[in-house]
Design brief:
The protein is about 45% helix and about 10% strand. The chain is an alpha+beta fold. The strands form three sheets. A five-stranded antiparallel beta sheet has the order 3-4-10-7-8, with no helix packed on it. Strand 1 and strand 2 (about 10) form a beta hairpin.
Length: about 450
């Protein structure tokens, strides 16, 4: 084929053979990619295909079950609980982790020790889920002497509502006291000039408060009601007299005594270190009451791993691990934000909150979307923390789809239902991945 020129015609050079981007033939490129393709097929494509087929077979795998395994996803109580908890995870865990990461990234941007703080926050990412689960199993322990969370909670609670030092105290034999509304009250009224004895037992001598002293018999005083409230117990068989103050017995220091007349409290007093107390003449003709506050059980904290709080507790452990991941990505995006825009907003009169809400966050929207979508995909398959942290009594309440898949497949020997759960999880992840791919393609076009 020829083309016209000013001097006549000239031959058109032949078209060049197109080479691959590697500069070699396509067959060579395919050979290099073949090992990866084999591994991808063996580790990803084949398991997905086999799970899809197995989800339509019965328990033994030799018969067709139709959609019965998929019906179980919406009729089995355990799977429905797992599905509900997965919704809670997807809504709250990524949101809280991303929000904390954003706050940490912004607040540490201007401080001198920001790098060290980021290192500390990111450090949990170096810990495996197994180790983190064991750590938080101890953190959430019900015993305040073991669990950090309850130790802090009990400390705060006791600051405002101190527990009683005598939760096990109660009247002994031949006691002038009788039970009344969680406390105790004298059987008969007392009168001015009378010295009353209020013997109690049930508290070991080594468990008495540090301010307790040797009990003393309160002397009577004209126009007043006096008395002694003490631990009527002496170590040693046959030692001590019942209902009388003996040497070595301790007073119930700090115990509250109320004088009740006609259902109303007319006077009150606190027991001194030696067990003695004094009431005014208002107590004449009243009954003496030891209110229930004297015997309140020590506050034992919150049941973090109980049925009602176990899911938020496990989410807290997840956030502790992944907030550092969110912070690092957001901090990288924040480093690329033009400072001129932030300064222009401040010059225009915007305060720091307005700059953050109307300038910083919109500019970080692409990064926030990456973090949020990544964490959403991650929580859909969360397994380790839910398997390790909740005790056996509340693991059913913390159940998620990945854990239920493990249970059905291995503990309950129902591979068909387990495969259906796996396919269902795949279907849940696909829309999130598709959204992420579309967003990345839009970013490339820009």
């Amino acid at each position: 084929m020829t083309s016209a020129t000013a001097g006549g015609t000239a031959p058109v050079p032949p078209a060049r053979t197109r080479k691959s981007v590697t500069g070699t033939r396509r067959t060579v490129a395919v050979l290099f990619l073949l090992p990866c393709l084999v591994l991808l097929g063996a580790l990803v494509v084949y398991p997905i295909g086999y799970s899809l087929i197995r989800s339509f077979l019965n328990q033994s795998g030799d018969g067709f079950a139709g959609v019965d395994n998929y019906k179980a996803l919406f009729t089995d109580d355990g799977i429905r609980t797992a599905l509900k908890n997965n919704v809670i995870w997807v809504v709250f865990a990524p949101t809280v982790a991303t929000a904390l990461g954003l706050v940490f990234a912004v607040l540490t941007e201007r401080v001198r020790w920001g790098t060290a703080f980021k290192l500390v926050v990111f450090m949990p990412m170096a810990i495996s889920m197994l180790a983190a689960g064991i750590i938080f199993r101890l953190v959430y322990d019900q015993d305040p002497d073991k669990g950090v969370a309850n130790a802090v909670w009990v400390g705060v609670h006791d600051t405002f509502a101190e527990s009683s030092a005598f939760p096990k105290a109660h009247p002994g034999r031949q006691s002038p006291l009788q039970p009344e509304k969680g406390g105790f009250i004298t059987r008969q009224a007392v009168h001015a000039g009378q010295s009353v004895t209020l013997p109690l037992v049930g508290v070991a001598p080594d468990k008495m408060p540090s301010g307790a002293k040797k009990a003393a018999q309160a002397p009577s005083e004209p126009g007043k009601v006096t008395g002694t409230a003490w631990q009527d117990f002496t170590r040693g068989k046959g030692v001590g007299r019942l209902g009388q103050v003996d040497p070595g017995e301790l007073g119930y220091v700090g115990m509250r005594i109320e004088a009740v007349k006609g259902g109303k409290v007319v006077d009150s007093a606190k027991v001194r270190g030696d067990g003695t107390f004094t009431l005014s003449e208002k107590a004449d003709g009243a009954q003496l009451r030891l209110p229930a506050s004297n015997f309140r059980e020590p506050y034992n904290g919150v049941d973090w791993l109980g049925p009602s709080l176990v899911t938020p507790a496990v989410i807290g452990a997840y956030v502790w691990m992944w907030a550092g991941f969110a912070m690092v990505l957001i901090a990288a995006g924040l480093a690329g934000v033009p400072r001129e825009l932030l300064e222009a907003a401040r010059v225009d009169g915007a305060n720091e909150w307005q700059v953050f809400r109307r300038v910083t966050v919109p500019l970080l929207a692409p990064v926030l979307a990456v973090v949020l979508v990544t964490l959403m995909i991650n929580v859909l398959k969360v397994f380790d923390l839910v398997f390790i942290i909740p005790p056996g009594s509340s693991q059913d309440d913390a159940n998620v789809l990945a854990l239920e898949l493990y249970r059905k497949g291995f503990s309950e020997d129902q591979p068909g239902i387990a495969s259906a759960i796996a396919v269902f999880l795949l279907l849940l992840v696909i829309p999130v991945v598709w959204f992420n791919v579309r967003r990345l393609r839009r970013e490339v076009r820009r």
